Amino acid sequence: MILVVGGAGYIGSHLVKELVKTNEVVVLDNLSTGHRWAIDERAQFVEGNLGSEADLEHVFSTYQIDAVMHFAANSLVGESVVDPVKYYENNVAATLTLLKTMMKHNVKKFIFSSTAATYGIPSVDMITEETSTSPINPYGCSKLMIEHILADYAHAYDMEYVVLRYFNAAGAYETAEIGESHDPETHLIPIILEHLLGEREHISVFGSDYDTEDGTCIRDYIHVTDLANAHIAALQSLLANETKTATYNLGNGLGYSVKEVIDTCERVTGKKANVVMADRRAGDPARLVASSEKIYRELGWKAERSLEEIIASAWKWHQSQVKVVK
Ligand code: UFG
């Protein structure tokens, strides 16, 4: 049985959809930002808190857990700057409670959702896992702290883990049963698509004076199903005892500017956007693009879906949301 903490959230629920095809799955989620309807019905569900010893005891004593995948975190860079306590409590302290409970029950295989935000403002165009980590906001710090804690747990308690540093997750499940549904929504692609559906008056481009070709920020967008498949490759490797500890970037290796993303959304949807130039958003590095060579070399995983496919899947999902109120 695989425990997926945060399996009702955007990325967790997409992982669960893939994982239930080959494994027994139990989801622990407090539904604070995730949705009950997003959890695949083949998975067991326990409503509870990652930071609650009682809730964790219940899960670990009820189910025979072979490995844990941890998606339950707050992940908004801007919010972390104004409310760091929330990030250190939920992302660090609560995760420590989970790790302690795992050790107590002798569960030693762990997959951790980390982030490109651990790199801060990188000094290189293509970020590899060797690029130095120097986060510039509490969100990135909170994730890097757990990475350090995991290294110490591996050394002291033989914990085996894979850290996956996501770049910009986007897109929706192929059938559009589930997709990105944040409240409030801050991410670029859903904001553009909501605008193109008439739900927002315009799109603000945060900064057009960056040191990039068209002056807007460049990001590496990765389809959420590609992300899910990387977790499954990492899990198989841990369960087969082929990996003891590893850290991998998860991206497409391609950078797209905010303007290019807007253009692609217009092309995919056939609609014209009303674009307004705005000030820079605090904490945004100009360019974040991943080399994912290492995970391809070691686990044979690479991203399969293009930016067009990411946007087309998200578009299908957003259109379905207009008709079905969940
Ligand atoms: N942007 C706009 N207008 C908007 C929204 C976003 O111009 O209305 C820009 C942002 O300034 C940024 C780019 O679009 O340059 C992408 O922004 P997102 O908010 O979609 O994503 P981020 O790159 O800020 O953040 C994502 C994850 C974080 C993670 C980070 C790591 O959401 O959790 O990638 O790079 F930390």
TrEMBL record:
Cofactor(s) the protein requires to work: NAD(+)
GO molecular function terms listed in the Swiss-Prot or TrEMBL record: UDP-glucose 4-epimerase activity
This enzyme's EC code(s): 5.1.3.2
Keyword Calcium: no
UniProt domain NAD-dependent epimerase/dehydratase: residue ranges: 2-251
Annotated keywords: Carbohydrate metabolism, Galactose metabolism, Isomerase, NAD
Pathway terms, separated by semicolons: Carbohydrate metabolism; galactose metabolism
Record field: catalytic activity: UDP-alpha-D-glucose = UDP-alpha-D-galactose
InterPro entries in UniProt: Epimerase_deHydtase (IPR001509), NAD(P)-bd_dom_sf (IPR036291), UDP_G4E (IPR005886)
CDD domains from the UniProt entry: UDP_G4E_1_SDR_e
Assembly and interaction partners: Homodimer.
Family membership: Belongs to the NAD(P)-dependent epimerase/dehydratase family.
Protein's name in the database: UDP-glucose 4-epimerase
Origin species: Priestia flexa
